[in-house]
Amino acid sequence: MSALTVAASVLAGNPFFETYKTPHQTIPFNIIKTEHYFPAFQEAMKQHVAEIDVIVNNSQNPTFENTIGSLEKSGSLLTKVSSPFYNLLGSETNDDLQAIAEKISPLVTEHSNSIRLNEKLFARVKAVYLQKDKLKLTPEQQMLLKDTYDGFANNGANLSKADKEIYRELSKDLNLLTLQYGQNVLKETNKFSILITDKALLSGLPADFMEMLASNAKKVGGKGWLLNLKTTCYVPFMKYADNRDLRRELYMANTTKCMLGGEFDNLENVRKIVNIRLKIANLLGYKSYADYELIDRMAENKTKVYDLLDKLLSAYKPAAEKEYAEVQAYADKNGAYFKVQPWDWSYYSEKLKDEKFTLNDEMLKPYFELENVKKGVFGLATRLYGIKFTKNTKIPVYNPEVDAYDVTDEKGNFLAVLYTDFHPRDGKRAGAWMNDFKAQWLDGKTDSRPQITIVMNFTRPTDTKPALLTFDEVKTFLHEFGHSLHGMLTRCTYQSLSGTNVYRDFVELPSQIMENWASEKEFLDGFAVNYKTGEKIPAELIQKIKDSENFNIAYFCLRQLSFGYLDMAWHTIEKPFEGDVISYEKEAMASTQIIPMIPNTGMSPTFSHIFSGGYAAGYYSYKWAEVLDADAFSVFEKNGIFDKKTADSFRKNILERGGTEHPMILYKRFRGQEPTIDALLKRNGIK
Question: Own/partner pairs for 23-27, CB < 8 Å, 24+ apart?
Fold first, then answer.
């Protein structure tokens, strides 16, 4: 029996080893069981090793096709298994999946290391790389060759034999730690709840929110109103609850997660993660982890990252201080006898916003019923790019709440599958994200189209109302949908370069630019109607949205900058960190703070973006991409927000090209010049 032969006795009936008989060969979630994953991982890694052996033992001289091209195509079964597994680990996890993840993590890391540290394989890759100037490669092939070589060199291939063993152990430890960190955050979040039985304590809360809290209580067999730390509860509670003591209690619970001891504490995990990352960077010849990570980024180095953060801090902080003073003055005028604290900010800010603009979430939510918003967002893609979305109920989904759509182009040709998953569950981590179940690639005349998923945590429908979104949730939808367009419209040859496989500080451009349409009258007029009366959103309400867009914009900028500074602080250390996590955090974020910092609270123990989500030394990219998106949208503003020529250029030069060329080349091809921060400052009213 060859290494590529599936062991029938072990794998019989395992769906991963069959051709999917589903529409577009989508994942058959209806027949995949938890027990299928571990043996499938084992066999997939075994097959991948055999494929690598074929490349290594090829008697012909290394060429682009027989080495780089073959390496790119290897591991398809492992991708087939790991893609649904890791997606479900974030959106539909349970104890069994988490147990498998902990079991498989060191095996997958070791498997990856065995490839990256394979000396004979790297010798072939290096031989092709050294010929790059003589080879007649397309720009996409050049990028794949560079990425492949860097993927080996930056993962230990040039290390000595002894150092390679050290690297193996460090990377295994790091993968397991980041996995445990993320699981701790989810479990600690799910653990907290408060059952309120006295309705008077909940004054100020909107009726539909109260209904959701009552539904929360009912689900656990309680009577009253159940508060928790999920975003759909925490954010509106902090915004509307009159009870300051309860606001403080929820704030303290949220900002002390995973740092008060107990089984889900992450303080030691933070220390271990940053120190292992430093060791890996040092082993590979870099002073800090940021130096290592920023090589393949538009920013290129930490000096340019800090230059951006510092420029934005200088531009926005004076405005943020004025915003804080205005909120404090409003609180004083309305009977506050205290300095506005973090648990007061959203509450008084919302009331001030309502007073200044006669605008609040409760006025807008009736016009943002989820089904209508879906039509609006999908319709925006139709107007810009000619694509259409048709629900396909024959595609299996991993939860009954998930919908699947066939996506077709203007000629009716199949483009992609899009899964949408909108509401919070105990098995879903917080936040919102896009991912793929299957990436796009070309092989000859075959264009294998992608299968994309967008996952969010929007307020659920209640017994009496459909799901009504806040304006911020509408923008979140547009943001993640922008990522999905990047994934769905891609037309690349190589899977590892397609879709969102781009530099980290470029990936947020296609998502953030979509948020610009959220307040445009021409966009809102197409779908925003009152869910009860069918009345179109009034023009004066849209104008209020426009007028209030920059309300406390400087404060929110400083908030994002604080996260960027914290991320860089953790990943620019050049000596092992042995200090107090929270004290170090406070110092790193101090320059951005305008609201009093509360002792014994912290973000690092739950900062999943950088400790378990892939944004280490990369959180600045949200602000970097905001500069890009403001600059790019200025072209739409000049030519018309639905201008087909502008949209076609953005599609062809940005969305379709993935990571096939350096992002600045792609951006300049669309824009005609490099971006500046002027458009962002102008948009935010700073300049």
Answer: 23/392, 23/394, 23/395, 23/406, 23/417, 24/395, 24/406, 24/414, 24/417, 24/449, 24/451, 26/395, 26/396, 26/404, 26/417, 26/437, 26/451, 27/83, 27/84, 27/396, 27/437, 27/451
Contacts of the segment 323-331: beta carbons below 8 A, 24+ positions apart: 323/552, 323/554, 323/555, 323/594, 324/555, 324/594, 324/595, 326/352, 327/352, 327/552, 330/355
Residue with tokens 């790193």: 588
User: What's the CA gap between 667 and 675, in Å, rounded?
Assistant: 8
Which residue, among 277, 4, 3, 280, has the nearest Cα to 116 in the 3D structure?
280
Q: Using an 8 Å Cβ cutoff, are 333 and 345 in contact?
A: no
Q: Identify the burial level of 144 via C-beta atoms within 10 angstroms of its C-beta, where 0-12 means exposed, 13-18 middle and 19 or more buried.
A: buried
d(CA 506, CA 559): 21
pLDDT of residue 3: 36
Describe the crossing of helices 267-283 and 581-589 by its angle, rounded to 10 degrees: 70
User: To the nearest 5 percent, what fractions of the chain are helix, strand and coil?
Assistant: 60, 5, 35
Helices H / strands E in the chain, number of each: 28, 9
- The sign of the torsion formed by the CA atoms of 670, 672, 675, 680 equals negative
Residue given tokens 């994002």 in the structure block: 560
Q: Which of 465, 476, 430, 425 is nearest to 212 (CA)?
A: 465
Most distant pair of Cα atoms in the chain: their distance: 83
pLDDT at res. 12: 76
Structure tokens at 331: 């609180």
Query: Tens of pLDDT along 116-141?
Result: 999 999 999 999 999 999 999 999 99
| b/e code 402-429 from CB counts within 10 Å (16+ = b) | bbbbbbbeeeeeebbbbbbbbbbbebbb
Q: What is the DSSP letter of 423?
A: S
Strands 451-455 and 225-228: unpaired
DSSP-derived 3-state class of residue 515 = helix
One-letter amino acid identity for 462? T
State residue 579 phi and psi, 5-degree precision.
-85, -165
- Please pick, among 51, 140, 188, 480, the residue that the annotation labels catalytic: 480
pLDDT tens profile 215-247? 999 999 999 999 999 999 999 999 999 999 999
d(CA 343, CA 241): 10
Give this prediction's pTM. Answer: 0.94
d(CA 179, CA 191): 18
Q: Which of these, 579, 610, 580, 599, lies nearest to 256 by C-alpha position?
A: 599
Cross-strand partners of 228 = 193
Q: Residue 349 carries which side chain, given as an amino acid letter?
A: S
- Name the amino acid, one letter, at 575: K
Phi/psi of residue 442, each to 5°?
A: -115, 140
Domain architecture of the chain: domains with CATH:
8-158 (1.10.1370.40), 192-255 (no CATH), 286-357+550-687 (1.10.1370.10), 365-535 (1.10.1370.40)
Residue 13: what pLDDT? 87
Q: Please confirm, yes or no, whether 480 is among the known catalytic residues.
A: yes
3-class SS at 433? strand
H/E segment holding residue 165: helix 161-191
For residue 7, pLDDT beyond 70: no
Q: Note whether 167 and 280 are within 8 A (CB).
A: yes
CA 303-306-312 angle, 5° bins = 140
- What is d(CA 504, CA 610) in angstroms, rounded to the nearest whole number? 12
Residue with the two structure tokens 């990252």: 305
Tokens of 570: 């953790």
Q: In angstroms, how far is CA 483 from the centroid of its own chain?
A: 9
**Partners of residue 442 on adjacent β-strands:** 447
Q: Would you say how long the chain is, in residues?
A: 687
